[in-house]
Amino acid sequence: MKNKPSLELLFSQLGLANSPAAIELYVRTHQLAANVSLHDAPFWNKGQRALLISHLVQDDDWAIWVDELNQQLHLDAYRLQAV
């Protein structure tokens, strides 16, 4: 494998800006409710959704980064549950 999987490369695979600042902004502005699965988020296009599901189903080296993205996009929901 040429590039070791990372959150930045996952964003790149999804066709999104992948600088640390761009990722932080994306995460902050795309928070999901606790009951919305990552792959069901309304902002993914068909290709992005398929890519995320594929990595999870294959449980490949990218799955950990998909899980990380899932956690980050649910941070607000987790905070609300902790209150």
UniProtKB/TrEMBL annotation:
Database matches in Gene3D superfamilies: Uncharacterised protein PF10982, DUF2789
UniProt xrefs under InterPro entries = DUF2789, DUF2789_sf
Q: Which Pfam families does the UniProt entry name for this protein?
A: DUF2789 (PF10982)
Q: Which domain of life is it from?
A: Bacteria
The molecule here is called: DUF2789 family protein
Recorded source organism is Acinetobacter cumulans
The organism that produces this protein has a lineage beginning with: Bacteria, Pseudomonadati, Pseudomonadota, Gammaproteobacteria, Moraxellales
